[in-house]
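Fold this sequence, please.
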Amino acid sequence: MRKEVIGNATLYLGDCREIMPQIKADMVLTDPPFSARTHEGARGGAGETVLVDFAAFSEEQFLDVSRQLLELVPRWVIMFCDWRHAAEAEKQGLPVVRCGVWVKSNPMPQMTGDRPGTGWEAVLIMHPPGKKRWNGGGRAAVWNHGTTRYGNFGPSNHPTEKPVGLVKRLLLDFTDEGETIFDPFMGSGSHGVACMDTKRQYIGCEIDSKHFDTACQRILAAQQQLCLAL
């Protein structure tokens, strides 16, 4: 398994399930490949081309990996997901605290025009047994932010890339400076860039070599920007 260390980020190319036993982290923040319909923008309507080009996890794999992640860290396990997966997680007895919402300020339109489009994505918030703590006080679990594929938030490097600004807000809400975040489905590295910007330690894993290389380049660029700012 290939390993790259860039500043406060450690990146692995390979199957996350192979490295989980050796991971030591404080929390998990990730965006698993559940299915093509999980991510708004994967399909614009009947007959449209599917943009998601990675292997999707089955529901059973999702539940299994979720349980492993909850045993891995003492604090939060947070995943972007389809609301159906969030409902199934609670039904199966996983320690779901909230199903948060990412409200998209510039959502993809429904290309067929015969029904409303989807302007939000679920944020599954879980916590293993123990005292819970976050930095958001009594605020609701709702985050408003544009997407990377549409509008003025920069070009996308991955079919379901999350905006760095959105990830930074989640990190500031659920973690403290210096803590270690594990991202088993790294994609093109947005979470790693956000960790660089917020002074968090980052461990990322990606099975696709192309996306892994993109993540390395983006995180290295973020690290170099931090060095220039010192």
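The chain is about 30% helix and 20% strand. The longest strand covers residues 96-104.
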